[in-house]
Amino acid sequence: METRVAVIGIIVESPTAVEKLNNVLHEYSDIIIGRMGLPYREKGISIISIAVDAPQDVISALSGKIGSIEAVSAKTAFSNVITKCEK
Fold it and tell me: pLDDT tens, 62-86?
């Protein structure tokens, strides 16, 4: 199995979406390297960056689940760092 490092950029436009987003992130917590969140109070949004290391299809599934939450958008940037993982 091969894993890749990626960053998922997330914009949350409504506080009501936060609980759903956190539930999805908790579901994938085993692949999350780190998370940084910034409230942009003047615009009423939150900006979140998630660093992950997992197979590309797992990262894409996570990004898709995040993007399906109402008032949340997500984009993923994959690194060219690919690691062979024995599982």
Answer: 999 999 999 999 999 999 988 998 6
Sheet (strand 72-84) strand order: 32-40, 45-54, 2-12, 72-84
Domain boundaries, the chain: 2-84
Name the class of domain 2-84. alpha beta
- HEC profile of 15-79: HHHHHHHHHHHHHCHHHEEEEEEEEECCCCEEEEEEEEEECHHHHHHHHHHHHCCCCEEEEEEEE
87/74 Cα distance (integer angstroms): 29
Report CA torsion sign: 56, 69, 10, 26: negative
Helix H or strand E encompassing 84: strand 72-84
